[in-house]
Specification:
heterodimer, A: two-stranded antiparallel sheet, B: 8-stranded mixed sheet, 7-stranded mixed sheet, globular, disordered N terminus
């Protein structure tokens, strides 16, 4: 059945409070009603989208992730979880590196990051090697 | 104050005007020693081209309750109605569907509240005046009032966080536990958010001594000895921390706030200082110290906590027994059982503390279970935590099941203050809460001095006192009583406890405070019942809740006191010409600033080595997004360090006194740091260490003088237990030369009177030299 329904009816069918549905619309998770004004109507597509949001939430996704996925981007769930390391090598520089690499590779990365941090700690110079004052 | 021209905040980075849904949050009202009755003014102004629905989320303060609201704008004004929550939501939604201006105030678990105002027209300004009842943290000499201007993010094992854009993060809680409650977005920089400020009056029965604030610059105007006006000294502030006001009295004595209410009955609140009940007993103590080592305690809080625990252990004698547990996602014990407080065990505890580092989440429940297991019977648990957790009702349920009394020393924001106060009260203990800009070590030592040895036990009150008084009274914490009587003439309060009795008459106040007192009683009762209502029960269908004892009691209390609870909400709908039925308003959630000194990266975008980011960063989503299991594991607030602790937080006192203590300076330790070290070094027999009796004697004399010089006596000050131990040790000494014995006798005599001869005793206590001569000269 694709008969149009009101927000109250959509809320009842989906068991999602009307305020939450408006919040989803404002966040771009759900399209607005197909008709504006007094006869504002919601369709089966709205209901299906709400069910999908509920399902993704139950899987532990945040609304921002769900919005990202539903917008047609690469679904986040297909990306295998992988740990990342964050090295703050300076107040204005952060280096991120995968944490699930081999110990040998991790050692190389660590050395490179330390070298970078050391370089950044040196006084800044211009192209001619003169130190800035 | 003219604020009309300042309703257009600019983005500091771009200089562009920011379109805020809420422009102003202003607090007015009256603060009593029994609690406060305040009105929070929320000004919403729509910059949208269509109707606007604004959601503002805030936490209730300690013992907070929602009374009513008034909504006003150009050409209209309406007052809220109190309805059963389902009915209130229905009224609100019908109003929205009809295109009418509608407002709903609904309470959720953890004392979180959503204020929703819908169908604000384009360009329209709407003001909501929400009346709130607030409890205060009492101490014998005064009280602390705390009001949340922001909402702090907190730990929940199933919460999820994301950084939605640089400097802005969001947090979501599980729907099955928190339903449709909407949290705000958290802004690292709150400077462009709504303006906040306050203008309050304090009314007491005792003469005021000091009024100060460790959080805001205040302007205090005394109207007389017992009344003062306290306002923000600058035009407005930013919503990135709670308002904290400290009120101190000149004297310590019972005070009764009483009056005749609109119902013709007499309503009163009585604050009875612990000093009215007697002194600490000398019974051996059984105490487990429970230290929160979660990530959010990193830096100064954890360092200070460890130092304070060392000093606390110095207050124990060999007849006392103790345990020590550090917890985050797991609990780790120093010993599997209680041990006697010998020097050897204290040294082992010190080594244990040296290895404690901040990490992981705040699984308080795990900590309680471990502490309870170690206690293995009755006793006290001393919890040192920031208590930054959601889902507190579950933890409270668990804590009540243990037989231990929980005493809490908390650091953080108002919502956690509410939780820790409930935790302590629900188990028969007491609590203190400090702001992130204050030291936590001295309050910890102070609180520890009173626990385990109540000044009164088996306390009962004659008459209809509700809620019932605590069965035990602890030094430094007064007893607060609420009661209503049909006829106030000749009425008096009578308290009985093991070995004691106290009564005093009810005297009417000149200012009409009866209704406020009555509402504070209702708010306190509702808060207590709310704490027994886990979300799983509170979110059950109506037909199930009708069978629930707590739900029934909350309904009954809400109706009796006309206060909201999770069972009853506040709502109003205003029909106006030009309402467009069916028009969908644009929903906006009001962002808040990060609370106190909590670093943004601790919750949003921060990483722990070896674990991945649990958040979604817009520009790295596809590359680095991680699954739920890892996300859950790394959700703990992880990164508030000492440096960060100094980034935020402005403190000022005008006529206010006691500025907050600065963080300890490692190079030039403050007197308090030296005292903490001295306290930690005290031996189990009460004396300072030394190579022989004579060296121990003089070290103890100088240490005692150092404590006295800083205002700590046998009965007053955070180090009162240590002072008492030193005095007892010195009194027990024999075999010294008559000259030294005379010096000791003179110092002990002074100590018992709370006097101290002139001298730089704190520095002398930590330096070598002929101290006998210095003391003799000074005497």
């Amino acid at each position: 059945m694709n008969s149009p329904r009101t927000l109250a009816e959509l809320s009842k069918e989906s068991s999602i409070p009307a305020r939450t549905i408006r919040f989803y619309i404002a966040r771009g998770l759900l399209d607005g009603p197909v008709k504006a004004g007094r006869g504002a109507a919601y369709t089966n597509d709205h209901l299906a989208r709400l069910e999908k949001i509920k399902k993704l939430q139950a899987e532990g996704k945040m609304l921002s992730e769900i919005a990202h996925d539903l917008a047609g981007n690469t679904p986040a769930e297909t990306a295998a979880p992988s740990p990342w390391l964050q090295y703050e090598v300076g107040d204005d520089v952060t280096v991120m590196a995968r944490g699930d690499v081999t110990p040998w590779r991790a050692k190389r990365i660590r050395a490179a990051v330390e070298a970078m941090a050391s370089l950044l700690r040196e006084p800044e110079t211009n192209d001619t090697g003169r130190k800035y004052k | 104050m003219n604020t009309a021209g300042s309703f257009a905040p600019l983005d500091a980075a771009t200089g562009q005007a920011i379109r805020l849904a809420m422009q102003r949050l202003w607090l007015t009202g009256q603060i009593l020693p029994a609690g406060a009755r305040v009105v929070v003014q929320h000004v919403f102004q729509s910059e949208e081209e269509k109707a606007l629905e604004v959601i503002y989320a805030f936490p209730l303060p300690r013992d907070g309750g929602l009374r009513s609201f008034r909504i006003a704008g150009e050409g209209f004004e309406a007052h809220s109605e109190l309805k059963e929550t389902e009915a209130a939501v229905e009224v609100y939604e019908r109003g929205i569907a009809n295109g009418s201006l509608s407002a709903l105030v609904r309470q959720y678990g953890d004392g979180l509240v959503n204020l929703t105002v819908g169908n604000i027209r384009p360009g329209e300004t709407v003001t909501v005046y929400l009346e709130i009842l607030c409890g205060v943290e009492l101490n014998d000499g005064g009280f602390r009032f705390r009001f949340p201007f922001t909402l702090a993010p907190a730990y929940h094992s199933r919460a999820r966080t994301a950084m939605t854009e640089p400097g802005e993060g969001e947090m979501e809680l599980p729907v099955d536990e928190f339903a449709d409650m909407i949290l705000p977005r958290f802004r690292e920089d709150a400077s462009a958010l709504q303006q906040v400020g306050f203008d309050l009056t304090t009314v007491t029965r005792l003469t005021l001594d000091e009024i100060g604030s460790p959080t805001h610059t205040i302007l205090v105007k005394r109207e007389d000895d017992r009344h003062a006006n306290v306002a923000l000294a600058i035009e407005h502030d930013v919503p990135n921390r709670d308002l904290v006001l400290d009120v101190a009295f000149k004297t310590i004595e019972p005070q009764v706030l009483a009056g005749i209410g609109k119902d013709g009955k007499g309503h009163f609140a009585a604050v009875v200082p612990s000093s009215c009940f007697g002194a600490n007993t000398e019974a051996p103590r059984r105490v487990v110290i429970l230290l929160d080592r979660s990530g959010s305690m990193k830096g100064a809080p954890l360092q200070q906590a460890c130092k304070a625990i060392d000093a606390c252990l110095g207050a124990l004698s060999e007849t006392d027994s103790f345990g020590l547990v550090a917890f985050d996602n797991e609990a780790q014990s120093f010993q599997p059982k209680l041990v006697s407080a010998t020097r050897e065990h204290r040294d082992q505890a010190h080594q244990f503390l040296m290895k404690v580092s901040a990490r992981g989440g705040t699984e308080l429940g795990l900590g309680f279970l471990e502490a309870s297991r170690i206690l293995d019977g009755s006793g006290d648990v001393f919890v040192v935590t920031d208590g930054q957790v959601f889902g507190t009702e579950k933890i409270l349920e668990l804590a009540r099941r243990t037989r231990a009394r929980l005493h809490c020393l908390g650091i953080g924001s108002a919502s956690q203050d509410r939780f820790l106060a409930l935790l302590a009260r629900g188990t028969g203990g007491v609590s203190r809460f400090v702001t992130p800009s204050e030291r936590m070590d001295l309050p910890a030592v102070d609180l520890f001095a009173s626990i385990g040895r109540p000044v009164a036990s088996g306390l009962t009150a004659v008459g209809k006192i509700q809620p019932a008084p605590p069965s035990h009274v602890f030094g430094g914490t007064p007893v607060l009583l609420f009661c209503s009587v049909d006829d106030i003439a000749g009425a008096e309060i009578e308290l009985n406890w093991t070995g004691g009795r106290l009564s005093f008459p009810m005297v009417l106040n000149k200012i009409d405070i009866a209704d406020t007192v009555w509402l504070l009683q209702g708010s306190r009762l509702i808060t207590d019942w709310e704490s027994k209502y886990p979300n799983t029960s509170a979110l059950a269908p109506l037909e199930v809740r009708r069978e629930n004892r707590v739900a029934a009691r909350l309904l009954e209390l809400s109706r009796a006191y006309r206060l909201a609870s999770r069972e009853m909400s506040l709502v109003t709908v205003i029909s106006r010409p030009g309402d467009h039925a069916g028009e969908l308003p644009e929903t906006r959630v009001v962002p808040v600033g990060m609370a106190g000194k909590t670093r943004f990266s601790a919750y949003f975008g921060g990483l722990r080595i070896g674990l991945a980011r649990p958040s979604v960063h817009a520009d790295v989503l596809s590359a680095s997004f991680v699954g739920s299991d890892i996300g859950e594991f790394s959700l703990a607030p992880i990164d508030r360090d000492a440096a960060g602790a100094q980034e935020v937080g402005f403190t000022g006192f005008l006529r206010a006194n006691r500025p907050p203590s600065p963080p300890p300076d490692q190079q030039n330790p403050a007197a308090d740091d030296i005292l903490l070290d001295l306290a930690a070094r005290i031996e189990s027999d009460g004396g300072m260490p030394g190579v022989d009796e004579e060296s121990r004697a003089i070290a103890s004399v100088v240490a005692l003088l150092a404590f006295l010089a800083e205002g700590h006596t046998v009965t007053e000050g955070a180090f009162r237990s240590h002072v008492a131990k030193l005095v007892k040790f010195l009194e027990s000494l024999k075999g010294l030369t008559s000259k030294h014995q005379a010096t000791i006798d003179a110092v002990v005599k002074l100590a018992n009177k709370g006097d101290v001869p002139a001298g730089d005793w704190v520095n002398i206590a930590c330096t070598a030299g002929d101290h006998w001569r210095k003391v003799e000269t000074a005497l």
